[in-house]
Amino acid sequence: MSKRERKKEIPVFCIELGQHIRTLRIENDLSIEEIAFKAGIDAQNLRKYELGKQEMKVSMMKRIADAFGITTPELLSFDK
């Protein structure tokens, strides 16, 4: 089994959430670096979340919501 075959499949919800985070960031005219700094995470990880290449824990969702100045339910309220 190759490394690519072993890779865990990312749930569709995580991919859509990443797209939503990117949309919020662009609508608020913020860079990946700005949101990552506010959330206390690495910009490269935020980029992976936005691109749907990495699954996100609930604690990370909270940190990202806080960085936008919104609640976690507000972050999660997008058309799924």
Automatic annotation (TrEMBL):
Transmembrane segments annotated in the record for this chain: none
InterPro entries named in the record: Cro/C1-type_HTH (IPR001387), Lambda_DNA-bd_dom_sf (IPR010982)
Entries under SUPFAM superfamilies matching the protein: lambda repressor-like DNA-binding domains
SMART domains hit by this protein: HTH_XRE
GO terms of molecular function: DNA binding
Regions annotated as coiled coil: none
Domain spans labelled HTH cro/C1-type: 21-75
Protein name stated in the entry: HTH cro/C1-type domain-containing protein
Record organism: Aquimarina aggregata
Lineage of producing organism: Bacteria, Pseudomonadati, Bacteroidota, Flavobacteriia, Flavobacteriales
